[in-house]
Write a structure and sequence with these properties.
By secondary structure, the chain is of the alpha+beta class. The chain has four domains: 2-171, no CATH class; 184-213; 216-335, CBS-domain, CATH 3.10.580; 345-437, Uridine Diphospho-n-acetylenolpyruvylglucosamine Reductase, domain 3 (2-Layer Sandwich), CATH 3.30.465. It contains 14 helices and 14 strands. It has a five-stranded antiparallel beta sheet with strand order 8-9-12-11-10, covered by helices on one side. Strands 1-7-6-5 form a four-stranded mixed beta sheet. The longest helix is centred in the first third of the chain and has 39 residues, at 61-99. It is elongated. The N and C termini lie far apart (78 Å).
């Protein structure tokens, strides 16, 4: 018995090494696919940039996958060579002692057993690990992949050129054989709708994914900018305000937004058959919903759609009104700024300037838009707009022309009134990647 174990031990160990190598390559294959074509988190992207070998593998993912597939075939052949004859030999001995003759059955069973082990241990589990832990899997196999790529460069380079030639002959075309890059959604969009429209669609798709990271306070219209109909004011004054604002929906309040009782739609005012200036506007009101300021924006959008409403009040933890959320402001997070004939220039929230990397920014610009534009991570959870960031930093309403530095930005206040910052010129002071001053 000990002699038998001693005889088969090298073969078993060799097969296990090959099987482990096969599994490592399989996990690397799916890691490359996920990291190349999926949306990579920022911390993963930073880790990849710090490891040149990994970044090179991703930049040349098509070549990396070809190397992986080549050596997966090699390891499968090696595993078959090591284990199938060994298993068939001992199964044949068992069959001979049982039946007194030997058939091809031991070889069939040996092949099936090796294939089962190969699929389970060498394919299914490693692929799952590669998808679940792509960065770790690629790190584990990066050195092996680089060595294999160097060793097999002449072989797989020649095979690739031969495959390109056969492809052109078979397709009777000069077009190259599709590469892995053709699987990316950017390439798919470009092939469907052309380069010009593809950029817009890519931005919309990314914004739709990123909306899950936002909360209502990131996009609300602040309280001091909300136009509302006040039942304590004469109806003619409310109508004048409605005409001048150009809006279609107004909260109906008793004195202020904290005492909102409903919503007035401008169409209901037009349809009123009596003397509108003497009407009791409470009879024309519609319902309005209230949404918590820290509720995920995706959930708030679902509520607006399910209630078939375009506007909701946004409340804080003390049930006070922070502002309003409109369907338009939510959709702008996906498709970009929506401008109509009633919007003024201030509502173009970020207007880049030609020189110096600066931009003219509205005081109502949400913090997350500043972060995206200037590549910052602003650590201030108490405010949601640029104007709020400025006033919270200096503890007062700034003066026109005042310059402050906040969160890596140089902010020059260009327009202000008694209650808020209307507009400012913003410039990035520090490159957050290497902490060196910008020119």
């Amino acid at each position: 018995m000990n002699t038998v174990l001693f005889d088969i031990l090298p073969t078993v160990l060799s097969g296990l090494i090959v099987l482990g190598l096969h599994g490592l390559l399989a996990s690397c294959e799916f890691s490359l696919l996920k990291l190349r074509f999926a949306q990579v988190p920022e911390d993963w992207a930073a880790a990849l940039k710090k490891t040149p070998a990994l970044e090179r593998l991703l930049d040349e993912a098509d070549r990396g996958i070809r190397v992986v597939r080549l050596f997966l075939a090699v390891t499968l052949i090696a595993l078959t060579v090591f284990w199938v004859p060994m298993l068939a030999h001992y199964l044949a001995d068992l069959e001979h002692s049982w039946r007194g003759s030997t058939t091809a059955l031991p070889w069939l069973i040996a092949i099936l057993v090796v294939l089962l082990i190969h699929q389970l241990v060498g394919e299914v589990i490693p692929r799952a690990l590669g998808l679940a832990f792509p960065l770790q899997s690629l790190r584990a196999g990066a050195a092996v992949l680089i060595v294999f790529e160097w060793v097999s460069r002449p072989l797989h380079g020649g095979l690739h050129h031969l495959a390109q030639l056969l492809w052109r002959l078979a397709m009777r075309s000069k077009e190259k054989m599709p590469s892995l890059d053709s699987l990316s959604f950017e390439a798919q969009l470009e092939s469907i709708c052309g380069t010009d429209q593809a950029g817009l669609l890519q931005r919309i798709l990314r914004n739709a994914v990123n909306i899950r990271e936002l909360v209502v306070s990131d996009v609300l219209l602040p309280r001091n900018q909300v136009k509302y109909i006040d039942l304590n004011e004469p109806v003619p004054e409310n109508l004048k305000m409605a005409r001048e604002s150009g809006h279609t929906r107004f909260p109906l309040c008793m004195g202020d937004l904290d005492h909102c009782i409903g919503l007035i739609h401008i169409k209901d005012l037009f349809r009123y058959s009596g003397n509108l200036e003497k009407a009791d506007l409470r009879w024309l009101k519609r319902d309005i919903i209230r949404i918590d300021s820290e509720e995920p924006l995706e959930s708030a959008l679902s509520k607006l759609l399910s209630h078939r409403m375009h506007m909701a009040l946004v409340i804080d933890e003390f049930r006070g009104t922070e502002g309003v959320l409109t369907l338009e402001r939510v959709l702008e997070q996906v498709v970009g700024e929506i401008q109509d004939e009633f919007d003024n220039e201030e509502e173009l929230r970020i207007r880049p300037e030609d020189e110096g990397g600066s931009a003219v920014v509205s005081g109502l610009t949400p913090i997350h838009e500043l972060e995206q534009t200037f590549g910052l991570d602003i650590d201030n959870d108490t405010v949601s707009t640029l104007g709020g960031l400025i006033t919270s930093e200096i503890g007062r309403i700034p003066e026109q022309g005042e310059v402050i530095q906040v969160e890596g930005l140089e902010v020059t206040v260009t327009e202000v009134d008694e209650t808020r910052v209307i507009e400012a010129r913003v410039r990035l002071l520090v490159d957050v990647d290497d902490n060196t001053p910008m020119d």
